[in-house]
Amino acid sequence: MRRLDREQVRQFQQRLLRWYARHGRDLPWRRTRDPYRILVSEIMLQQTQVERVIGYYERFLRRYPTIATLAASSEPQVREAWDGLGYYARARNLHRTARQVTAEHDGVLPDDLDQMRRLPGIGRYTAGAVLSFAFGKDAAILDTNAARVLRRVFGVRARGTKARLHGRLWELAEQVTPAGRADRFNQAIMDLGATVCRARKPECPRCPVRAVCRSAPETVARIS
Questions:
Q1: What is the pLDDT of residues 94-130, one digit of tens each?
Q2: How far apart are CA 116 and CA 195, in angstroms?
């Protein structure tokens, strides 16, 4: 991976964070620092659109307001509370995580990356999201939206296998995530990918990082 242009990274961070301060989405899980509630939202958001998750998230937390209440429930009851959201392995893993955290961590989600990733159904992205959003840790994230933004802004080409590209994008995410501001930066890059830098019909004219994007139409024309 080529060396990053420090000024491009700085401008990207600043422009993205300024945009997020004005245009970030107001979502219920962004109004809390409770690690359990943030974990519930992140598990629900896997492979599911934000708009569909909101109602399920609020109903699920009314039924299971704490990790202890979830751990004390039975698997059929958790499955019933999840009914209609799909991908039910997520519900089983969340329930198993609640029980494991109750048994091994006194009911408190760990704030350590390695310990977090040993919990059922929690991968690198989910661990980074919980660590940054709940604990304020300098943890990077890489979901589909963030990956798209990074590929376009920094001109990452699809060379080699998908696994190799994924690894390069994770490396890039870790390099550009600003220390002390990972929580806002991670939310911002996901919002930008979801609302502006979309997979189809990206709205480049209103993109806040267009001036530093290697894939912006005027940049491509200048290089060609």
A1: 999 999 999 999 999 999 999 999 999 999 999 999 9
A2: 30
